[in-house]
Amino acid sequence: IAKVYTDQGQWKEAEELFALVAEKRKKVLGNDYPQTITAIADLASAYRNQGRWKEAEALLVVVLEKRKQLSGDDHPDTITEMANLAYTYWNQGRWNEAEALEVVVLEKRMQLLGDDHPDTITAMGNLASTYMNQGWWKEAEGLFVVVVEKRNQLLGDNHPNTIKAMGNLASTYWNQGWWKEAEALQVVVVEKSKQVLGDDHPNTIPAMANL
User: Fold this and answer.
1) How far is CA 48 from CA 89, 91, 127, 188, in A?
2) 183 near 159, Cβ under 8 Å?
3) Taking a C-beta distance cutoff of 8 angstroms, is the pair 144, 164 a contact?
4) CB–CB of 86/105 below 8 Å?
5) Are 34 and 77 in contact (CB under 8 A)?
6) CA nearest neighbour of 125 among 145, 154, 155
């Protein structure tokens, strides 16, 4: 039922059930049992969906440590929890901590899934965004160029994720004083945002403002 609440965006209801499940599993199975750890991770997800980053962080630190102990550093679940913890740091403006984890996540994704896997490209985009928030425009640009290229290949020019990546790349150009390059790309972003999302979409309006 908690998963149904999550799918419906009923975060508070999901949180209450996940908390109950986690507590029961701790008592019955113990703190280190895989199903207990999954329940704690689900509760952390409910906190994240409500923007309760500190509470999510506290749980994810524990979950990540347990995943490493039980499954190893290279297990997909471990890498996922590492990415989730990085996301909580990112949303608290803790760029250095987010970056440190995102570098590892990207490295692991590339090793285990390959350069073209959607999860690898997402990890690359996340790290690039963290570089942007630290003002590391050149590093961000290098990653966003690859992200745009991969998104174009896998999703097509008109996919919202491709358009978003193009907008981010344009931003790195702008912040390096490359006005012509930024303008050329942002014109495409605005045009495609209007076509795909509509004039009044929350992503279209900032794109127009950036142009």
Assistant:
1) 11, 10, 19, 33
2) no
3) no
4) yes
5) no
6) 145
